[in-house]
Amino acid sequence: MPPMSMKRSQIKAGGGEALKLSTSALTLTVTTDCGPRVTALSSHAGRAGNLFLEFPIGTPRAHGYNLLGGHRLWHSPEDIVRTYQPDDAPLLVKNLPNGVALTQPTEEKTGLQKALRLELLGLRTVKVTHALTNRGLWSVDCAPWALTMLRGGGYGVLPLPPKGNHAAGDLLPTYSIVPWSYTDLSYPVWSPHRDFIGIDVAKAPAAQKLGITNYPGWSAYWLEGTTFVKYAAVLSDVKYPDFGCCFETFTDGTMIEFETLGALSSLAPRRTATHVEYWTLLDGFAKPNTDAAFRTLATAVRRWIAGL
């Protein structure tokens, strides 16, 4: 990756203190007195501005949890009490040469402590390390769950595993699509293609969610000429939550979430589970709602992943 000069500054965001990290290509903002949440990510070359969704200050809480928007760390499987524990307290902040490490106080009701490590690699790559540490007295069944909320109006793509050949002896399934109870695959928000599932956010008339148990590890969201890509390696020797989902997406027509998951385990006291994502922003690519546009984007993404 090319040499990088990172700028760091303190700002206000999400109603409180935050840290802004910038290279010559992109800028991100992360809260320091709550969360941690990455509330903004924008490309300097594009016109889309912040691709991450930001809720207005004062938005009603969801089951006691202040959503804020942007990127957050939760623990899966989702539970109305455990998952929505507030994260309103100031964080332990440790500056890194190329980023920052943020740790929240231990959740009183769960005994779990969340931490986020953001590292800028080169000009356009962000490494995001999510950590759950069990500070309690007994094991907790959970998985790290990394959720990114993106502004509506764009187009998402979920790549599918490579196609096999029945005549050559490919006889067994390679992945499952997992719908939620409220998912309606007849809605025009879903656009299945040979090599990907397209997600036209504005065409979702109601809340929709879909998961997948195996995929190439990356997903992408195009908005106003800038494409956000996130990648997390899919592990073959672990158990994932939600019928084995390693990736999930949720949309209600006004926004979309891209969610990757780590391994589901019985997290023993004083043990830590980690989950790593990589992000990038690509400018100048066509909306990937056709097979040809998707192939062009996929070629660029595979080249980026190979360089990680």
Throw out a few tags for this protein.
308 residues, Beta-galactosidase, Chain A, domain 5, mainly beta, 21 strands, 10-stranded antiparallel β-sheet, single chain
| Backbone shape | globular
Q: Identify the quaternary structure here.
A: single chain
Helix-strand topology string: EEEEEEEEEEEEEEEEEHEEEEH
Largest sheet: 10 strands, antiparallel
CATH class category: Mainly Beta
Strand content: 35-45%
Count of the separate structural domains: 1
Assign the CATH architecture: Distorted Sandwich
In short:
The chain has 308 residues and is mainly beta. Helix content is 6%, strand content 44%. The longest helix has 16 residues, at 291-306.
Description of the structure:
The protein has 308 residues and is mainly beta. The protein has a single domain (7-306), classed as Beta-galactosidase, Chain A, domain 5 (Distorted Sandwich). It contains 2 helices and 21 strands. A 10-stranded antiparallel β-sheet has the order 6-7-8-9-21-17-16-11-14-13, covered by helices on one side. Strands 5, 10, 12, 15, 18, 19 and 20 form a 7-stranded antiparallel β-sheet that branches. A hairpin with a 3-residue loop joins strand 18 (247-251) and strand 19 (255-261). The longest helix has 16 residues, at 291-306. It is globular and about 55 Å long.
